[in-house]
Structure prediction request, 259 residues.
Amino acid sequence: GLLVVFVGVAGIFLGFANRKYLGWERFTVISSGGSVIYVQTVDDSSGLTLKLPEDLLIETAAGRGEWRVGALSVLGKKYGKKWVADSVALALGIGYTAHVEELGLVDRFVWWQKTRNTVFSELDLAESSYVTEIIQSDGIKVKKLNESWSKKVSGLFSSFYLASSDIEAEVINTTDGSGLASRMAGSLTASGIRVIRVGEQEKVIANRCVVSGGEDELKSKVGQYIKKYFDCDESSSGEDDKKIIVLIGEKYRLWAVGD
Prediction:
């Protein structure tokens, strides 16, 4: 009896320790079981189901090239479900909580609680103005996200607590990967964080990314979100100036665009 209780308590503790959802931000999961991919997101009582059609062409994570959404589930057997979800999030320019199949028991329970009474609106990208149909060199028609999507995404994936924060962010690329700072800045902006500067520095860091700021900034919801969702280390600057600086390193470059 005591062993069962101990195992149960240990399981709950590990579930909390390994949870992917912080408890206050927008909860976003990605599902990739078939030829289409779904992104479901909920913030307070409003929810959205986003459908990515199988003929949507996206640039995938880790420099593995452009692939149709319909091929990602098969590729996921080789590269993993997290790679599939990372690729979708990078293409859409969003942060996400987890692939739905990688949620632990605690996160699954919280997801159920948050969504059981939520009415989800639906957006099928195939039927929207956010994609453009193009013809490839082999004559096959595919769809690609267009510029109007980058203008729309913030309104769909913004988190209330991040949007209402007075802490701003700067994003600095320390690598030779082109466009990485703008890409991360776009994801942060979509989440509701105000990005006031995008730039570069010559001194390369090996880390995935480093969040630098004062003690209050690092403990803030903006600081917590960036550290958790982008897997960043932290560094105290000693300056409480309502600003966070995010340094992008080599591990982020390899994750996003590969060698």
Remarks:
- The radius of gyration is 19 Å.
- The chain has ten helices and 14 strands.
- Confidence is low (pLDDT under 50) at residues 4-14.
- Residues 2-17 form the longest helix (16 residues).
